């Protein structure tokens, strides 16, 4: 169970909110939002009862229900309640409390299981769902990676997230979209976790050394070179252990927990990552990010200077990786000194 920080045993009075906004909020979410705001201190039962217009016994019953969902909520006489820990499975009221903390006000669909969050986002876009929105699933039956590969998606401990967008922009505007998202997410995770080894492997992997931590997949619906709808998906290994991964990927996979020895709060990462991704999407759509991408890529480029082999369709070539060009293509210096640009394909490190 991921822990919340401990504080002195004193109670904290959350900021008073308009009662009209409280009545619109799920009571479970209000309780957890109050506890999050107070972390690491306690919130008095009297305060919660007063704001929710219920008895202290009613508050206790609601807290007990939240505990049964897997949350650790400590109670202290004359001090109140404190959020102490959370499970690896996402609990909707706590997720909503973190969304409130991060000022996320667009729809987020939480599913117990689905074939793929990207597929679910595509279905929602096709049915007319207003964008932007996000889809999270506790488990994927057929998680998708690049080139038709399956993304291993066990229940609990990881994040499977897709964002649905209707950008309606020229395709050329989004040619570096996944790279921009990759460096933004890697920088965010480095800042959050302190894992300095996190980098981006062209074109869409989050890695630490030769081991994959996460993968990204962008899929778009294009009409006359205009991107009408688009889905950005990410699978991130958070608290899973590579020891439990299938043999075929075990040696090349890792997780934030494996890298740090720390169990991470998955609700916090989910909410903050959605916020980061949405902001990054808007930057890529509305701003000229070319110069900043070149600068950030030099810092986060896992392949820089390494010998690589590229397979793009029937074309196979090798050389050393030297960053990306303005289109997002991988620059490869061949043995004869010439340069070749890879715009797609499978990259393998050469030993």
Written overview of the protein:
33% of the residues lie in helices and 27% in strands. The protein has eleven helices and 16 strands. The protein has helices spanning 19-24, 27-38, 45-52, 56-68, 92-101, 117-126, 177-193, 247-250, 256-260, 266-286, 290-300, and strands at 2-3, 72-76, 80-86, 108-111, 133-137, 158-165, 169-170, 198-201, 205-208, 211-223, 226-237, 307-312, 315-324, 330-333, 339-342, 346-349. The strands form three sheets. Strands 4, 5, 6, 7, 8, 9, 10 and 11 form an eight-stranded mixed β-sheet that branches. A hairpin with a 5-residue loop joins β13 (315-324) and β14. α7 (177-193) packs antiparallel against α10 and α7 (177-193) packs across α11 (290-300). The longest helix is centred in the last third of the chain and has 21 residues, at 266-286.
Helix-strand sequence: EHHHHEEHEHEEEHEEEEHHHHEEEEE
Overall geometry: elongated
| β-sheet strand percentage | 25-35%
Q: What is the number of strand segments?
A: 16
For the termini, the CA-CA separation is 39 Å
For the biggest sheet, the summary is: 8 strands, mixed
Mean pLDDT: 91
Helix content: 25-40%
What is the element layout, followed by pairings?
Blueprint (H helix, E strand, L loop, with lengths): L1 E2 L15 H6 L2 H12 L6 H8 L3 H13 L3 E5 L3 E7 L5 H10 L6 E4 L5 H10 L6 E5 L20 E8 L3 E2 L6 H17 L4 E4 L3 E4 L2 E13 L2 E12 L9 H4 L5 H5 L5 H21 L3 H11 L6 E6 L2 E10 L5 E4 L5 E4 L3 E4 L2
Parallel strand pairs: 4-5
Antiparallel strand pairs: 1-3, 2-3, 5-6, 6-11, 7-11, 8-9, 9-10, 10-11, 12-13, 12-16, 13-14, 14-15
């Amino acid at each position: 169970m991921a822990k919340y920080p401990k504080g002195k045993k004193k109670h904290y009075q959350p900021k008073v909110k308009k009662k009209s906004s409280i009545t619109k909020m799920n009571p479970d979410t209000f309780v957890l939002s109050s506890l999050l705001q107070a972390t690491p201190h306690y919130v008095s039962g009297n305060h919660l009862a007063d704001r929710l217009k219920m008895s202290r016994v009613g508050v206790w019953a609601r807290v007990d229900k939240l505990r049964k969902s897997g949350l650790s909520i400590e109670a202290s006489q004359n001090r109140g309640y404190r959020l102490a820990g959370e499970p690896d499975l996402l609990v909707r009221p706590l997720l909503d409390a973190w969304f409130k903390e991060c000022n996320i006000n667009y729809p987020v669909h939480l599913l117990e299981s689905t074939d793929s969050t990207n597929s679910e986002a595509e279905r929602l876009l096709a049915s007319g769902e207003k964008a932007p929105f996000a889809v999270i699933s506790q488990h994927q039956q057929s998680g998708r990676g690049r080139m038709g590969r399956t993304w291993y998606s066990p229940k609990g401990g990881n994040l499977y997230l897709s964002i649905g967008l209707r950008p309606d922009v020229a395709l050329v505007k989004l040619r570096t979209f996944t790279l921009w998202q990759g460096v933004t997410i890697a920088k965010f995770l480095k800042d959050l976790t302190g894992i300095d080894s996190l980098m981006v492997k062209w074109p869409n992997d989050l890695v630490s050394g030769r081991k994959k931590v996460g993968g990204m997949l962008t899929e778009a619906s294009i009409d006359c070179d205009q991107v009408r709808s688009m889905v950005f998906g990410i699978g991130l290994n958070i608290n899973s252990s590579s020891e439990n991964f299938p043999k075929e990927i075990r040696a090349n996979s890792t997780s934030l927990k494996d890298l740090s020895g720390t169990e991470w709060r998955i609700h916090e990462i989910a909410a903050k990552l959605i916020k980061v991704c949405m902001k990054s999407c808007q930057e890529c759509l509305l701003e000229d990010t070319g110069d900043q991408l070149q600068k950030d890529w030099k810092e986060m480029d896992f392949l820089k200077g390494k010998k690589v082999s590229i397979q793009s369709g029937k074309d196979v070539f090798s050389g050393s990786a030297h960053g990306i060009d303005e289109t997002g293509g991988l620059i490869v210096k061949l043995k004869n000194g010439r340069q070749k640009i890879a715009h797609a394909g499978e990259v393998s490190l050469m030993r």
